[in-house]
Amino acid sequence: MAQRFADDGFTPVGRLISTADLAQYRDIYDRFLSGDIESGEKRTDLGSHVDRKEGVRENITQIIWPSALYPPLKDLPLHEKALSAARELIGPDAELDFDMMIHKAPHTAVPTPWHQDAAYWVDMPDKRAVSIWIALDDTDLDNGCMWYVRGSHLEPLRPHHPTSDGKNIECDCSEDEPGATPVPVRAGEAVAHSGSTLHYSRGNTTDGVRRAYILNYRPAAMIELERRMGADHGLNENVRKVRNSDATEQ
Ligand SMILES: O=C(O)CCC(=O)C(=O)O
């Protein structure tokens, strides 16, 4: 798994939530979506660059820092398993940097823009970072499984620009890009990508929900450095723009 991650920039991780535990994770997730667990300004629309259809609250619901909003999440079995996968992939000094939920409601049909996560982040001297993307529903092409560009993490970051509404960022890429690969995973399974791997997902055109929970890891010393620089992935600050100088447009 570690070799594949190093070579390709992404790798399937296998099952991280047992079938028996899925119901509990889905229940917590749905309490966030219904507002029973409040998320306030930590809830945004990652697809807000597309006009919302009547009755649609968000095209793509993004809730950052669910574990800070609802700390019991951290004590459920997933976190320990994901941490050991992260350490296998980027090294024993990996710690949880931040987490988020990204949900695509039925028939919202809005793709997640192509991007590299590192473009959102302040530049780090040690660039090791891994996102573990855990599916709470079976995913496929039609409901928005993840796509990655194999080997893109080995090249310089692409220039990114704000999405048309200025709320998020994106870069030029498409499914025709050499190496672009869809990675469908089953509910409870995960796929990992590095901070500089190009990725996106299609919109959800099915009758079902597509719930993903994402845990992001980097070396403990880099998390400390980020925090000293005032960067906490939206815990207290709220910045969704290009921050990495390597990803700015010339
Ligand atoms: O779930 C998605 O559609 C996008 C996920 C993503 O961009 C990420 O995990 O960095």
TrEMBL record:
A molecular function (GO) term: dioxygenase activity
Please verify whether the record's keywords include Oxidoreductase: yes
- Check the record and name the InterPro entries matching this protein: Phytyl_CoA_dOase-like
Question: Could you tell me the keywords of this UniProt record?
Answer: Dioxygenase, Oxidoreductase
| Name of the protein in question | Phytanoyl-CoA dioxygenase family protein
